[in-house]
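STRUCTURE:
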């Protein structure tokens, strides 16, 4: 069954990770995912100065894009949103909006990386590693929304995460974030939803690099020792079956790298984004 939503956002933002290849990923995902009754908006991302400001690479264009996305989402006021993005900042605005709209929304951050950095903790200054921390209400003021933390720490589950910087590890531990590591995902894909109550509204952030790069190499930041794409698809299907999914963001796909597209389709099908059976 196709997942119904009000709007699809196609966001070829690449400056957050400073990897232009993921811009093509947003377009490729849009070709793989048919529209499901709502509108589809292609958001333009303009070039800007490629420089580090306040410890953040490409701060100006990233901040401008997030502002544009927040304005568009506020204007459309959707109940359910799909973001087909470039890098991991592409869906922050949609997740913020949905968290305000759906009381008690939980977030599944399905990603090899925690994206919990701030400008001070990030070794690279790449803003795509700061997305989840922004949702939790911390980060550069030009990247933050105006409403404070979008979700509380207790509503976040990291799924398949395995590549954390020291500052992220410390924050995740001190914040008590729920974590389902790759070994746990492989052992019991359906266990990712425990202990979340059934029927809770949920947001799913899917970074393709959660999959082991041997199985799915077409990603911007490959990280070894992850679950296979089929296993990740099982985990995503479990989330979709257990929760009322109100938002999905898919990102960090690099289609120019040779790979088996059927594995990408399986991930999308697990969330009801294609007509395939998964």
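SEQUENCE:
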């Amino acid at each position: 069954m196709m997942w119904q939503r009000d709007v699809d956002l196609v966001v070829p933002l690449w400056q957050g990770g400073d990897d232009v290849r993921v811009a093509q990923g947003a377009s490729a995902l849009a070709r793989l995912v048919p529209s499901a009754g709502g509108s589809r908006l292609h958001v333009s991302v303009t070039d800007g100065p490629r420089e580090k400001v306040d410890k953040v690479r490409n701060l100006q264009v990233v901040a401008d894009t997030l502002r544009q996305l927040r304005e568009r989402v506020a204007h459309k006021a959707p109940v359910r949103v799909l973001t087909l993005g470039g890098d991991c900042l592409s869906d922050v605005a949609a997740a913020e909006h949905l968290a305000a709209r759906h009381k008690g929304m939980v977030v599944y951050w399905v990603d090899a990386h925690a994206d919990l950095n701030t400008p001070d903790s990030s070794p690279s200054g790449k803003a795509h590693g700061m997305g989840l921390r922004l949702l939790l209400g911390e980060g550069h003021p030009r990247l933050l929304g105006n409403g404070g933390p979008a979700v509380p720490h207790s509503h976040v589950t990291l799924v398949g995460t395995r590549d954390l910087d020291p500052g992220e590890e410390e924050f995740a531990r001190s914040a008590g974030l729920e974590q389902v590591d790759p070994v746990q995902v492989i052992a019991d894909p359906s266990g990712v939803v425990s202990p979340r109550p059934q029927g809770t509204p949920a947001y799913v952030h899917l970074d393709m690099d959660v999959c082991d790069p041997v199985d799915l190499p077409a990603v911007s930041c490959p990280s070894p020792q992850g679950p296979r794409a089929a296993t990740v698809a099982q985990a995503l299907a479990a989330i979709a079956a257990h929760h009322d999914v109100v938002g999905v963001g898919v990102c960090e796909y690099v289609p120019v790298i040779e790979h088996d597209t059927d594995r990408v389709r399986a991930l999308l099908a697990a969330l009801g984004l294609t007509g395939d059976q998964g």
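REMARK: The beta strands are 7-11, 39-42, 52-53, 56-57, 81-85, 106-110, 156-159, 178-180, 201-207, 244-251.
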